[in-house]
Amino acid sequence: MDIQERLQKEEEKLRTVVEKALDYIIKKNVDQALVSVVKSTGLTTSVRNQETDVVKFSKRREFSAELWNDHHKGSASTTDLSDDAIYKTIDAAIDISKYTEKDVYNGLAEDEDLQREFQEFDTFYPEEPNPEMQISRAMELEKLSLGNKKIKQCNSANVACGYGQSIFATTKGQFYTTRGSHYSDSISLTAEENDQMEQGGSYHFTYRSDIRWKLEDIVKEAFDDTIPKLGAQKIPTQNLPVIFDRDVAPNIFYWLVSGLSGRAQFKKVSYLNDCLGETILPEWLTVTEDPYMLHEMSSCCVDSSGSKTTKRNIITNGSVSSYILSAYSARQLKMKNTGNGDGIYNWLITNSGISRNDLIKKMDTGLIIKDMMGFGLDPLTGDISVGVRGFMVNHSEIVYPVKEITIAGNARDIFKNIVAISNDIDPESSVKTGSILVDSIKIAGK
């Protein structure tokens, strides 16, 4: 029996588990409920000094029930998929609901917001885990990484793969399957020169094994992320134009996610309180959320409350068009549910149609930020303070690496001072933005 046939049989068994659970819940006269069962398989391997360091095989299976009686919530889960264990888990969730506080915002999505048409996104290409193959790939990755005299050591070379499927159903008649697979390669390096050591690396993932990056390209990226950091200097405190390199640029928009969160808006604890219609970004910039993109691991047609996800603009020509709402926060705010009960999906960011090199020329003199340490945002005030590393640029030329510096300011000011975004988008990121040039940010140095 090949893997596809086996997984089909497993899916049928999982469906039976969910059907029995729903029947039992209905007999218990529960107001609303959702149940899910997940089964996944994965293999992680790691090598060090051409010896196998880690081989971790994992199998996960879990049933969970979440239910509401008169807006009192109860939930429970189990890894035992026998009938008796499932029924006891549901009974436990019912018992828990008797002791939780009533919350009128609880429950599944309204009928008009429910997802009735399930969609897959062509991200399921499972293969049986092969320890020998993965160890061999990791060893070759490490071997290639030691081909530069400035690399002192390879800290780790990791190769992983996995696949899984889940069944989700509700007492409102929803019943669907989600499936996915993943393959990843990563490497961590230490470079040394003149008694100074720096670390860097590379990480890549995809849904199909045959479109993984070549090992030589992964190592080259790791070299480019590590060796140029050698000789890093401190710089004086000053205000400078800044480029957030594409690897850290999504953080700018995660600050936006924090401010537009429905719960934060309801509690009035957002630095962007009541900002619908307000212009907070340059007028040329639009942010679109598209949960329905094929071959994207962040795509999803339904969230955990059964809500259908929504393709829409978050920002239109610089102005806030939508908050990020779950069924719960939509009820709180008396607004339309956007299906973001599990966070954001694919964010598409307008770019300026220029290359990263052209973006550097546009900045002329300033700082390129390559690494950020921590989230750095005060969600109530929007104040930013985060440690960074990067490179000084003088007259469009990178002159030396810098370290032990902090950027400080306010998210609103950073948003307004975005000058341009290059087209070097990372296709593996769920926030699809290129490098971002900001006009001026305070740099705290020596």
Uncertain spans, ≥5 residues at pLDDT below 50?
Answer: none
CATH class annotation of the largest domain: Alpha Beta
Head-to-tail CA distance between termini: 65 Å
Determine the CATH superfamily of the largest domain: PmbA/TldD superfamily
The spatial strand order of the largest sheet comes to 3-2-1-4-5-6
Offer a quick outline of the entry.
With 446 residues, the chain is α+β, with helices and mostly antiparallel strands. Helices cover 24% and strands 36% of the residues. Strand 2 and strand 3 (72-78) form a beta hairpin.
Overview of the structural elements:
- With about 450 residues, the chain is of the alpha+beta class.
- It has 3 domains: about 5-225, PmbA/TldD fold (2-Layer Sandwich); about 230-250 and about 355-445, no CATH class; about 270-350, no CATH class.
- It is built from 9 helices and 17 strands.
- It has helices at about 5-25, 85-95, 130-145, 215-225, 250-260, 260-265, 325-335, 355-365, 410-415; strands at about 30-50, 50-70, 70-80, 150-170, 175-195, 195-205, 240-245, 285-290, 310-315, 320, 345-350, 365-375, 385-395, 395-410, 420, 430, 435-445.
- The chain starts with a helix and ends with a strand.
Entry keywords:
446 residues, PmbA/TldD fold, six-stranded antiparallel sheet, 9 helices, globular
